[in-house]
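Blinded run. Sample ID left blank on purpose so nobody reads anything into the name before looking at the predicted structure. Input follows.
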Amino acid sequence: MNVKKDRFEHWSAEDSATLYGINDWGAGYFHVNDKGELTISPNPGKDAPAVSLPDIVHGIRERGMNMPVLIRVSNILESRINQLHASFRKAIEQTKYKGQYKGVFPIKVNQQQQVVQDISRYGREFHHGLEAGSKAELIAALGTLHDPEACVVCNGYKDEEFVDLALYASMLGFQCILVIEMPSELDVIIERSRKLKVKPMIGVRMKLSTRAGGKWTESGGDRSVFGLNTAQLMELVDHLKEEDMLDCLRLLHYHIGSQIPNIRDIRSGVQEASRVYIGLVQEGAPMGYLDLGGGLAVDYDGSHTNYQHSRNYTIDEYCVDIIETVGEMLTEADVPHPDIITESGRATVAYSSILLFNILDVARFDPVTIPDKIPENAHDLTKDLMNILSNINQKNLQEFFHDAIYNRDELRLLFKNGRISLRERALVESAFWHIMAVANKEVQKLSYVPDEFEDLDAQLADIYYANFSVFQSLPDSWAIHQVFPIVPIHRLNERPTRSGILSDITCDCDGKVDKFVDLHDELHTLPLHELKPDEEYYLGVFLVGAYQETLGDLHNLLGDTNVVSITISPDGHFDIDKEIEGDSVGDVLSYVEYDAKELITFFRSVAERAVRRKMITPAQRKTITNAFEDGIRGYTYFER
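Blinded prediction complete.
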């Protein structure tokens, strides 16, 4: 991401696209126009119009909505579903595979009603179904899906009520498959299906020995939490035979991890699962479906590698490897080809959501000016520090760098012991940070950067205070150190002259973003622009459609952001399909058991007591209580 150009050389929009890696992680959906604005193109590779994100922000603000705002782009969601099915269809045709592809969307990845509804609508022509891991998700699926040929895959642990719902759905014509996660579930399914007089469609989740790389490697292997091992699988088959219900076993499911970066792990899992599938058919089960679970990764950093935030394969490669492997192995074993199901959630929804927010303020790292002369009675170590500042260069960089740290630490100890004054301590700190700033400039000129300088840029970074909550809108950034592309959405034809990290408004030391995408590593600072007086500075966080809305919490009682769903029309305009106001203060207080009416009543009594004590006038009481009530109705985020 580092672009080395002469300071006074012209800076272009293309330079910004390279600097922020937009063409690498954007998958064709995001570009920079000649005006230096970030744009959205909902159909990559086609002559579809591009819409400016600043124009969208302007339209939202004119309609009365404040930042932060989550933008959902319906066209991108449609594009992702189309692309997945087109790639599988092409792989099936190329390999002469005899089965079909039927995707399902795991509701847990983004449970928002509009997202699930759009997936059901856009996926209908492909019979794209839904995966439910709880009773609530199953109810959402049954209340949204209108395609009798689409599958509803029921994962998760199931009580009788869950099983009954799935069986009733089967009676209504849904292709509802109960996937057994633990052996005890089989008895419940048998008992309830006989009670309700309905033949169940049963699937089984298998613990594969295959393990995938990345953050979710524990999803696979012998000690993975979910699924049956081989011995338990054989016991299940024998139990079904005893109950004369083996014909109900229709699906084999496995899951070796979300965000699998290496195609070799995917192929290895498919090979092992195909062998298990063959074995089940040979045991007499009719089968018909092979569910590969999730794992199709999103290339968050654009590096196209097997790094945990990336992937070393395309969607076409993913589909061909799956179809080719299953087809060859089952043909060799003379077993009919099953319909393939994948539970690709992250890759389906990640690109369609963008978090937009404004910057409220900046704490710049600019050491204070050092006086030309230092006091004659200054400590020798202080004088040595000043000498380092005057003489540091590339040749003595490492030596003087270490000397400066040593002197600074010794002088701090002297201050604690009362040996130097507070004013001299201030001089020492200023000199030290001036030395660090000079060292950082010299480091940028080096072809090889020694290890001790790697974090120096981050230590000298500005802090940009952003109007959002990491814990509410980017929980994975905090919890599992997921990196997301973050880019200014305007001024991209201007050179960014500052390096910064982002702090949210939660007043928490963990409420920050200090890891950013890069083709070769993770960066600890983000190139940013100087703020301009009386002009908002907007940043966008991209690829946030998966998990971030569902996992957010109420740290500091900062609630859900405003949400705007848009569709980009063929004529180059955008239509706002739906606006959802973010949580008010009263909303989030109710989530933690406060009653807004009780709060208002109590506050009014406090204000009335102040009137009786002649601390305020009745007119002032009205103004104060109105402000309190307006606050309860207001947005939880910063409002200009």
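Unblinding after everyone has recorded impressions. The radius of gyration is 30 Å.
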